[in-house]
Amino acid sequence: MIDTKILSGIDSLYYFCESNTNYDDLYLEILDQLEEVKGKFLKKDIAFENKDLYILINETSLNFIGIAEGFHWFKDMNDTFKIGFKDKYKNKGLNDIRVQLLAFGIYTIGIKSIIEFINTSLLKDYVTDFFPITRVDLNSFVQSDLSFITKDMFVTRKRKYSTISEIGNANTTQTIYIGKEPFKLRIYNKKEELKKSNKKDLMYEYFLNNDFDIEQPIFNVEFELHRTHLKQFNINTIDDLFLNAKNLFQQSMEDIRLIDISNITFKDIENNTKNRADTLPIWDFIKENYKLDSFLQNQLPLERIKRKISVYSENKFEYEYVALIRKAYINNLTLDTEYLNELYFKAKDSLKKTTTNKEIKKDYIEVDVIDKSGIKENFRLLKDGNLIKSLKTETVANLSDYELLVYLDKTKERQHLSQRDKDIYYVARKEASKRGLF
């Protein structure tokens, strides 16, 4: 048992954001932006889908998903979260902004970093400091084969937890559900689930980074906890959750217990008097080893989150390529297959070239001159002996995404030096925002 690996965490999180007096302006701006983008398609009689529509909030691009439960739903371009906005004058019993964190953000950027970005950067002008939680999935990935578990091997403290369903075959169990909202346990074969999931590469990388053997069984023990259940433990906000998650998970494992049925009779099982049975050691082991310290410490700085982070694939390329062609037609650009083929070969040819400064033949020597006040400036010493001040210019539209982000970092550091430096930074930032890089 001591060799069994446990990887604790929070697999999903849903919460509300309390809106402030500026929210109504934001909501109307969202609707205006959607109508403006729709208008471009309608004007040219071009069919469009929800995914073709987007808005911009505080320089962050969000793709439209659709309308559900009175909310206009959007997803960020990095697939790290979903966010919904509703009319503040409708359904006043609900908060106006609803957020769901997604797996890509949780398992790469870190749950605290995503929350900080949403609350203090994306929504900073439109929310208060109150973020009530509505649902959380607390889980432990277990490097062990739990397919031996059957629904008969559980006892629950409360009658309302006793709804149990089982999915599998005669020999092994794939999934077990116990209970129903607002408190539910799921135990399932994680590798089996990932076979048909677009999260497979992401999760396998996460497991490998945490010393799991992906050739061996991996099961997930997960509690789905909703607001009404959380309130019983005085957990109302995100901060409350982080402070009490460990105790909450351990209490949940007490409320639903995996037992050793080998030391009780069939009559005990039939009469539902199984509570006298001992808890299986694996259950106690998972409970006692649930820790969130390292999981919550997985964070990226806020500035890095704003940049586009993605796992690139053929599907991603196809989606972006089609979107780019559609954008060209909407904006009256002339395209034909000959031109697109030309761009294809131009792109392939560019892979053979490098654009490092080492390749550029220099007719000068870089020198640094320090004046009496200690200020250092860069000059160029020409072959004829003249010393001239270098003029550094960049056409940001011609830079690749990576080059632009590097350039943006450099200009940000210098923006306070002069008005010209400030203007250079503004132009670079505007170009990066237009490309959706943060």
From TrEMBL:
Protein name: Uncharacterized protein
Organism of provenance: Arcobacter aquimarinus
Biological classification of the source: Bacteria, Pseudomonadati, Campylobacterota, Epsilonproteobacteria, Campylobacterales
